[in-house]
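Why does residue order matter? Because the sequence determines the fold. Keep that principle in mind as you read this record.
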Amino acid sequence: MIDDPDHALRLNGKDRRYLLAGLGPQAPDDVWFSRDIHNNQLQHWMLVVKYRKFELVRMAEGDYMFICDYEPGWTPDRELQKPSSKMRGGFGNGYDNWCVLRIGWSRLSKREIDRCFAAARAYYPPRLSWTQCQDFLRRFADQLVDRYDLHWRFFVDNTAIERWSVPQLTPPPAVAVQQVQQAQAQAQAQVQEQDNIMRRVNTFNTWQSGFFMAQQQNIALNNQIMQNNQNFGVGYGN
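Structure:
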């Protein structure tokens, strides 16, 4: 399967429609591929399926380490909102960009996915080089993906071992760039709106504090006037 990436183009007919409609023995799950380039360094590679995240994260020494996590409700939009390097890196700053693309579908169960990961993981040391990351991703995805999506080619190009540096990696499709930029703009708008709300709340609190302070001062002044009237024998009926 990995040696025939164009096979996806032959699955756009009845076979894929039946599979995606859930008419087969088991409805397929999306398989997502992500990469994050920040400061012209590739910070992580990631595959996601059934809320399982299989990440290869760059260490300070330049090699990569496995981080596996289970995140119920994971979506690409939720991933984008996280405060990490992908929020700081933007398109147009050298090679910096973050993207997540669906590369295919899988009908494997959770147990089968974990078994495939363990089998692929066994070939590599605790910390991997760049090319070892690419080789692992290809090996794992080969077992994982039943049907290719249109962005399978992007995954294949990025995990080709002859692409051994950031400048050699294929840039993300324009549609992915636009989606990320729109999501970043929405996130910034939400932050701005929250700031505006907090400013309005602070203004109201300041006004309310001043009102209560003036009220307390008036009460104290009235009490003082009454005390003075009593001291000088001024009262009701006099």
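The chain has seven helices and seven strands.
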